[in-house]
Amino acid sequence: MSVHAALARPVLRTPRGRHAKPRPAWPRVAGRAVFLIFALVCVVAVTGFGWSPVLLVVPAAAFTLLVASIAKLRTAARKIDTIFAEELTERDQS
User: Fold this and answer.
1) Higher pLDDT, 48 or 13
2) What is the mean pLDDT of residues 47-64?
3) DSSP for 46-83?
4) Transmembrane region positions (predicted)?
5) What residues does each domain of the chain span?
């Protein structure tokens, strides 16, 4: 979210919790389905070629690190946008 988008919405009364408008679920469902299909293809390929199942550890670890880093980056970006929005609204009110 950009600073301009953060300014367009209220900072103090952001809808969170059970009264927030729910996000669409289809991106999460589609992402999980793609991941599961890809995981099954990898398992079938490893067993089909007769390779050791230990080879699946490296892609699984890489995927786990990727997901964790994306989540941390999104959290950090959200915090930075909130700080900028608060600073800009304080400056406008003064």
Assistant:
1) 48
2) 85
3) HHHHT--GGGGHHHHHHHHHHHHHHHHHHHHHHHHHHH
4) 29-48, 54-71
5) 26-93
SS3 19: helix
Tokens of 65: 């690190």
Tokens of 55: 């080879």
Radius of gyration of the chain (CA): 21
Say if CB 88 and CB 7 are below 8 A apart. Answer: yes
Instruction: Find where tokens 């699946």 sit.
Output: 56
Q: How far is it, in rounded angstroms, from Cα 1 to Cα 77?
A: 8
pTM over 0.70: no
Given a contact cutoff of 8 angstroms between Cβ atoms, the answer to whether 12 and 94 are in contact is no
| Sign of the Cα pseudo-torsion (32, 33, 36, 41, in order) | negative
Cβ distance 7 to 89 under 8 Å? yes
